[in-house]
Amino acid sequence: MAVKGNEVRKSAPELVRDGLREAILAGAYEEGQQLLQDELAEQFGTSRIPIREALRQLEGEGLVELHANKGAVVKGLSVEDVLEMLDIRIALECRALKLAIPNMAVEDLEAAEQILTAYEEISDPAAWGEMNWRFHWTLYCPCDRGKLLAMIESNYGHVSRFTRRQVSLATGKAKPQQDHAELLRLCREGEADAAVALLEKHIEQTQKSLRAAMRRR
Fold it and tell me: In terms of Cα–Cα distance, which of 131, 92, 90, 94 is closest to 111?
């Protein structure tokens, strides 16, 4: 990544990596789908060299797998993978929330409340995951820990590839929204310990709902 003055310019592999990462996490590619280097080079307007480097980086992030005979494919996630990532969510996000609550301004709380209001009006389960993420992210940002937030964002992106399809339907909207409203109240009142305890239970309930959904299958 090059820096010119105050402007940060990404290299070609970084641009490809970030574009592919965003597409994979958004569900533009199916699990197991082959990523053809020639097609990607044409799509991103570059040679195959930055494509190969980007794919190697995404392999390190756990988003793709590189095979000698098949090339790059989008990596799938098992239920156990997702359950473990939800454990990681608890560790990272509870810490961020505890650090964030003392720093929360009125504007942060109002922004979170507006998201919950919009969330309540959405009937499409496919959109619930995005609204849930926006709400949680708004609460964590005041922690002012860049590396911690980056880890949360990366881990949540992996989880959301799976939970976007599975957990929204398993958990519904009513119970998560009850938790969200109570979580916001505790944040507003500065009850950090109670808020962290509720957040942990909130994510644990997602784990339980996912296990239940898998049992029914």
Answer: 131
